[in-house]
Amino acid sequence: EVAGGPDAANFDVALAELSKRAAVDRARLVLLGFSDGASHALSFGLARPKTFRAILAMSPGYAFAPRRPDPSQPIFIAHGRRDTVLPAANVREMIEGLESVGYRPEVRWFNGGHRIDPDLLKAALDFALGKYRRGWRLAACRASAFAVNDKPTKSDWEVMAANERRGRDLARAT
Q: Which of 52, 62, 81, 122 has the greatest number of CB atoms lying within 10 Å of its CB?
């Protein structure tokens, strides 16, 4: 079950821990992933529609269908037409599957390979958060390390700090 299990437990612990350290507006939680992380974000996010305001999938490869679909959940998918790692044809099939149960994902294709297109990342954040998009960085960066390990290690904290610096740099650039 994608909605439960160790990943869900780690996420719940991470969110609780983050909420102790920073104000977390649970109405604005967004799940964003790239590559296999995007596939996992789709599967996990679709299984927990009341938890996530939107799902942003950058170059995903698959998604597991939830037991109880909630087609009102916003989904943004960006994918390269020349992606050789997770081919566009697979993603088209996945999108058709989502649409067959009522989802209406916002799909953006770009002329590139297996990467995150910076313009589409900005579009995805605007899609999910609109004028509030600057608030996503700290929560997303810190939760990612907790989701990987039950207890963050020193290297997890170093990765989080680097992610937060990159997030601040991206904020200044946008």
A: 52
CB contact at 8 A, 143 and 18: yes
Quick one: DSSP state of residue 172?
Answer: H
Cα distances from 11 to residues 51, 126, 127, 129, 139, in angstroms, run 11, 24, 23, 21, 12
CA–CA distance from 100 to each of 39, 69, 117 (Å)? Answer: 18, 11, 27
CB 15 within 8 A of CB 119: no
Instruction: Read off the pLDDT of residues 132-159 as tens digits, 9 standing for 90 and up.
Output: 555 444 344 434 433 333 344 444 445 5
SS3 68: coil
Asked if residue 29 lies in contact with residue 139, where contact means CB atoms within 8 angstroms, the answer is yes
